[in-house]
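Review form for a predicted model. The reviewer records the input and the model, then writes brief findings.
Reviewer: anonymous (R2)
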Amino acid sequence: MKSNSALVIWKLVCLSKKEGGLGLFDIKARNKSLLAKKLWNIHLKSDYVWIQWIHHYYLPNVSIWDVVSQRTSSSLWKDIISLKDQIVAACGSQHQAIALMSTWGSGELSFTAQSYDFLRFKCDMVP
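Model under review:
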């Protein structure tokens, strides 16, 4: 019988070389790290036109940290809100999530590199 499923566990292949993987990018975690950058720019109220539109349309009187997605929201907005909820749950509170994300902008690594490291599958999660 021929199987169409992968013969490898991609989460393990995408581990860093230090953790026993091949060091390939986990595409889902990479996408989430880029969404995290958008989330952070929305939090900072950057002067990008898209961010201004987001604040006008989705956040007229509320913070990004207090909003929930609606059924009629775009898939991008739902993904950003879902990621926000994931980060808050992992950190324990909104304030701790904001503190963590503020550290991602400092240091030698870029914001997306640090958020990728936070969001990716790690070897200590292997069953």
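Findings: The first helix runs from residue 10 to 13.
Further findings: Residues 26-122 form one domain.
Recommendation: see findings above.
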